[in-house]
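Q: Could you write out the predicted structure for this multi-component system? I'm mainly interested in how the pieces pack against one another.
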Amino acid sequence: MNSFGNIFRVSIFGESHGPSIGIIIDGAPAGIDFSELDMEDDIKRRMPRERGTTARREPDRPDIVSGIFNAKTTGAPVTIMFKNNNTISKDYERFNTIPRPGHADFTAMKKYKGFNDNRGGGHFSGRITLPLVAAGVLAKKILKGVTISSRIVEIGGKENYQSIIDEVLLSGDSVGGIIEVKLAGLPAGLGEPFFNSCESDISHIIFSVPAVKGIEFGSGFASARMKGSGHNDMIISTDGKTATNNAGGISGGITNGNDVVFRVAVKPTPSIGLAQETINIETGEIENLSINGRHDACIALRAPVIFEACAAIAMADLYLKYIIDNCWSI
Amino acid sequence: MNSFGNIFRVSIFGESHGPSIGIIIDGAPAGIDFSELDMEDDIKRRMPRERGTTARREPDRPDIVSGIFNAKTTGAPVTIMFKNNNTISKDYERFNTIPRPGHADFTAMKKYKGFNDNRGGGHFSGRITLPLVAAGVLAKKILKGVTISSRIVEIGGKENYQSIIDEVLLSGDSVGGIIEVKLAGLPAGLGEPFFNSCESDISHIIFSVPAVKGIEFGSGFASARMKGSGHNDMIISTDGKTATNNAGGISGGITNGNDVVFRVAVKPTPSIGLAQETINIETGEIENLSINGRHDACIALRAPVIFEACAAIAMADLYLKYIIDNCWSI
Amino acid sequence: MNSFGNIFRVSIFGESHGPSIGIIIDGAPAGIDFSELDMEDDIKRRMPRERGTTARREPDRPDIVSGIFNAKTTGAPVTIMFKNNNTISKDYERFNTIPRPGHADFTAMKKYKGFNDNRGGGHFSGRITLPLVAAGVLAKKILKGVTISSRIVEIGGKENYQSIIDEVLLSGDSVGGIIEVKLAGLPAGLGEPFFNSCESDISHIIFSVPAVKGIEFGSGFASARMKGSGHNDMIISTDGKTATNNAGGISGGITNGNDVVFRVAVKPTPSIGLAQETINIETGEIENLSINGRHDACIALRAPVIFEACAAIAMADLYLKYIIDNCWSI
Amino acid sequence: MNSFGNIFRVSIFGESHGPSIGIIIDGAPAGIDFSELDMEDDIKRRMPRERGTTARREPDRPDIVSGIFNAKTTGAPVTIMFKNNNTISKDYERFNTIPRPGHADFTAMKKYKGFNDNRGGGHFSGRITLPLVAAGVLAKKILKGVTISSRIVEIGGKENYQSIIDEVLLSGDSVGGIIEVKLAGLPAGLGEPFFNSCESDISHIIFSVPAVKGIEFGSGFASARMKGSGHNDMIISTDGKTATNNAGGISGGITNGNDVVFRVAVKPTPSIGLAQETINIETGEIENLSINGRHDACIALRAPVIFEACAAIAMADLYLKYIIDNCWSI
């Protein structure tokens, strides 16, 4: 169940502290220019840089293993891998017995009966989003003429958030945030009614990213407080452009020619320096737990490019389906 | 692309004003008691009853066509159908030329090049949620010992909403709302990391329901304003019970033994009696449009049982996968 | 698991003696002319007519329930149903206790713990191939410019088989046969390397038809006795035409521009009038069993149009994928 | 489209002359002992050893990249990779212009518009069966109590084939053969009616292996010449054991408790030393082509362990589904 997509399909693998992590991208048309260099920018954008991001430093150099020949896609599955170098695993053994609050320790242990590799979160680690970002670069190339952008809407409830970052760093705490993603230039007609609506596919992959707690499109939760007369977007041109964009660029699950816009809520990093209580599964005793190791005080800071990649992967899949709808002729 | 689920899979079909609509449910184990009677309650809950719901009256009598023998599932695909009786189609022809704001008229026309059946919204109609509710009844039976409930959190921003309903009925307007769904009694261990996280699967099917603009799990969007120390749910018993439930019962994409809780934002019904402007695709002129026909002034009122069904369908699929994880032994 | 196809996907449902059987066809492009009339010829070809076919007579009138508007596909799932009228079910109860040799009685009972509907073979019945034939008609329309034909190669080892039919009818026995299917006019480039090779997809759906024991493409089993120098098809024109067609029109899993040719082995009908011995599951005693009821003495006689439909469905799916490969451009 | 399986799913990647090839195995339960050592025997069985197999020598050392921790499956996707060392690529450039008879050169070029990596056959190479064999080892471990064996039935029509091998080696020709695979110890109840019949799934993956031209189960093509009275397998014990096994262990698509038996026809290696004629796509002239490079004069010799792996992968997928059928209880 580690695959996403019908025509443009990605399959991820790897653990945070394993030898390497990677992704297979299936369904990319042949002839697209693609090389390690193309991924440099987006991978950099995901790297921890500013205050509030982890001290773990990885070169994150992508290694294209298959599917590319003469710097172009061949039509065969594209495999991209990343080595894990900077791993410190001594800490994690105990977390199967003393599960960390807000982490997957307990559920992973339950699901996999303790056989899971919990070092660094194993296959549950946010590190697995790195291959997603790499795949996103190829997906963006499939979405010709589409511009994908993202921004931090707020951190800890503030647009101007630097002081909050300082605060949580000082206190050994963490904080959440909201990210907005926008796709401009998508033609009208992508997506399916019902089960493969644009919202269904985008939310599906966005919620696969650790720490996501909510997603809304266009007017989102605010729409629940609105009246139809105020919410309906008046169509003002024959190509479907609307005066407002409460729909978030999607009507009936299908792109309507306006910008696709959605916002994602990211919870505060569960790993904090502050002491917390949790239960010892073996003894049944409540224990004190303080988590050392290197973590992001605010993962939301690194999320924008990840959500861009998710959106690109979901829409690239629908775009290839759209080619059928469009090129088919009796 | 009208199917959802990997093991427990539903496939929908039909149009609002076609002869009938229905659903195929594949993957239900053999031997489950199931008959038309079992669906009566949930189907009733979806029916328009209170003020603010449509005047369209359908008997909504389910007809089991396959997969049931001696009032039990046989293991073969279960097909349930509903006749459409009370249809008035004269209105719709023009909506391919004069697309209604907030509707799928424009996108459906674009995607299907005008070949779509737009009578009553065709395959995009909220009526297609009726078979989902029927399938939800069977899904709930697979989720043994699980209690699924739902409630209207607010309509038009108010917990006590009856006055708003009166207001929009009077003005020929419509209004949105927020629904909360809770699943109690799920074991820990359902769901997959990444692409088949509980949130991914639930959001995927929830966003297939027309008019949904957002979804959040547990603390949801509020988590973006919280600190890790306040957000982490302290584990207080060896079975994973937590003191708080900001996680919404899901950690790392997998159920953690606490109640699964999510909230859904439903936009106001796009069909309103008030006059609106939209473009005439053929002439390029802005025209005045007022929509007669019978519609819900607030679809959110009918949504709770639909979202319950969606959650049940998504979790039944993950529950069958969970049986493998659990029953497997070396 | 009752669906087949990635883009053009069919899902079947129904039992031999249930109220009706049917199929959902998802992924057909919008705008294709399609009506009940279009299915008449192929459905007739499947009907029992000549000596050696069952006495069961069904009108087999297709009822299009969804996806067609103004006699054209709308892009929404197309559902086609058939009523079961002429059913005689009294015989079947006992077959869960006294499984018929060569039938699915024993395996269905084991798999479904006795909850299966075994009347007329239930969901295992050859009758379920009727909806496949109906779907095949639509699939053939997607394969523009492609001519699909089929022929009986031999029955009971004889090209001229009528005497054998007489013989088995007289003795209350049954006989098998070999069918050949040919697809002419397919462009080069359909299919995928490895898991979605044309042979993989065609064999997958062909083996879903009851009574099929083998399939071979082009030179097939004879190739095992050949030398490479004699087997390789010399390419004689720039469009890929070859002097011979040992490849059966497929190279590396992909159509090469020559006729796609395959042969299917159909076993003799397991239901025979002659007395047979089988075990009584409850008593453990060997019992004498003679099967009345109405059956085909040679199902192979009715199989050609069914295999045509299977081939059309499999290739239509690959054809829609081919559209992407072909229409994509940087 | 490079994935196979619903619950136990494999995804392959890589090219014959790329840096490495590999496979992701998704859906393996947690806790299964698995290490590089476990794969040694089957990988050895696939290696070219006897007369008539290629001179290309690869260490074929499997590298487990993910999904294994403390020599056990973790439940996360298992990735296994193999380096390509011994590659000689100078020959292949021209084959996009002068396609080799019996090869995928022409179809790959057509499908991928010349962007395909044709070195050593690229992604179409038989070398990609190596990761399949590795995955087969894990699949065999899921099929507890099942014994999978295979044998060469004939080469070039002879059971005693060594002389034919000598003959084709001398003449620079190649020859085909027939392989039989047997699975003993499978419980009754694996597989689905229709689209996921055991035959459908096994044939699907078997035909993904290059050079396969046909497959038959049990009596196979011989059944077409048989009468029902001679073909039906008499059931002689309450666990479904039959006196004969014309069914090949499968009734109605579902295992019946007897040995699953199938035979596969493998064509002669298309690469031969003898001069052949083919067309030059650019000039349209017929050219003389003689293929140097290192090839198997009879690939059938190396196929048995590959087909075992294919059968194991297909049946492991159905076995996990069978666990649901079996462990489910009201």
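A: Regarding packing and overall arrangement: Chain B is about 25% helix and 20% strand.
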